Amino acid sequence: MRAEIIAVGTEMLLGQVVDTNSALIARHLAALGMEVYHHELVGDNPERLGAVIRQARDRSDLIVVSGGLGPTPDDLTKQVAAEVLQVPLATDEKALDQITRHFQVTGQPMTANNRLQALYLNGGVALENHNGLAVGSFYRVEAGADVLLLPGPPSELTPMLEQTAVPLLQQAYQQDEFLESQVLRFFGISESQLVTKLATLIDRQTNPTIAPYAKVNEVTLRVTARATTAAAAQEMVAKTVQQIKAVVGEYLYGYGDEGSLAQVVVAMLVAHHMTITGAESLTAGQFQSTLGDVPGVSAVFPGGFVTYADTAKEQLLGVPVSVVAEHGVVSAETAQEMAERSRQKLNTDVSLSFTGVAGPDSLEGQPAGTVWLGLAQRGKQPQARLFHLSGSRARIRERSVLLGLDWLRRTLQVTK
Q: Where is the signal peptide (predicted)?
């Protein structure tokens, strides 16, 4: 099955709204074993929308259109689809009753154009909208592409797609091939390095396939397999994932949409029943703020320290003046002292510290991007690591926090 997705809305063409619907639809279609070769974005123009639907009809088996089902003059999706398919529109009486009751309850006048939201492609199936007023449509044709019309607002589209449309598609199309995908998320390795290390696997790939994607601060791999049963496809993906982990498993921190690096670390701390604190100079609280964004972090994070000035390091943490005087703020010794003394202050199991030069100017003869991280663990000697980063002041801080989280992740993997 070849499917095509069309998003309708001038606001998306202008960049005022981001099209998230198409990505959601594509994931569900892929899970049904359908190939999505084309995504189209078209404004609220009947001529252009008609042309896009006709083009899709000639090259696809299923057309999924989102948006343009409302009552306003620019909501013309179902009218244009009806014209292209040469079928009339019919009124879904149940939906019309729902619309009428809505206006009675709200006390607002019901104008004639609101009746348009109850229209669907005659001969097809009307898809009930439990979160809005505009019904969807699923229309099958004897020759050509079937058409699925969905509302534009994600709050309406998502439940209609998942609760009604997907079961309809499963019933309409008997699957003879199943598609299974798994996304692997990596930190601490570039896309080029990852591809190089996995060259043997990637070069000989046929089924499953391995596709790398570079994202902000991380690299992802999508492993996709096709098989005659869902179980067989899942087994093929699992085998390939194990082969990948054998080569670059140290950089793998998560799967799919499991969460950010901070969420993964917090989950590990919770699982290990370990507490954490932080002492920040370079990052000025960004590490602790990142932890604080994770729901449930209070179970493992009692608080921390922002010690930007030398006097704050001495007064709040107890870092000896002699350490800073002898080695400087930007040093392994200061990073270690900050980590261990903050850990002792709050009696936590681990602590991370951040000190360095965010820029744009140098400090203590050290160029911008010089970063020292400290890691202290209960019952162990504190450690420090040096990094040389590039980019803006904000970029250096952000990257420092992620490097600290990844160091902690690796440490927790071998703990207990």
A: none
Edge-to-edge strand order for the sheet containing 136-139?
A: 35-42, 2-8, 62-66, 146-150, 136-139, 125-127
Tokens coding 7? 């998003």
Domain spans of the chain? Answer: 2-172, 178-255, 261-413
Residues 6+ apart with CB under 8 A from 153: 132
Query: What is the DSSP code string of 244-271?
Result: HHHHHGGGEEEETTS--HHHHHHHHHHH
Superfamily of domain 2-172: MoaB/Mog-like domain (3.40.980.10)
What pLDDT was estimated at residue 242?
Answer: 97
CATH topology of domain 178-255: Alpha-Beta Plaits (3.30.70)
Q: Same CATH topology for 178-255 and 261-413?
A: no
Report residue 50 CA to chain centroid gap.
Answer: 32
Q: Give counts: helices (H), strands (E), the chain.
A: 16, 17
User: Greatest CA separation found in the chain?
Assistant: 86
Does the domain formed by 261-413 have CATH 3.40.50.2300?
no
Backbone angles phi, psi at 254, to 5 degrees: -170, 175
Q: What is the mean pLDDT of each run of 10 residues along the chain (416 residues)?
A: 95 94 92 90 96 96 96 94 97 96 92 95 96 96 93 96 95 81 93 94 90 87 90 95 96 87 96 97 97 96 97 97 96 98 98 96 94 98 97 95 97 83
Give me the pLDDT at residue 416, please.
Answer: 56
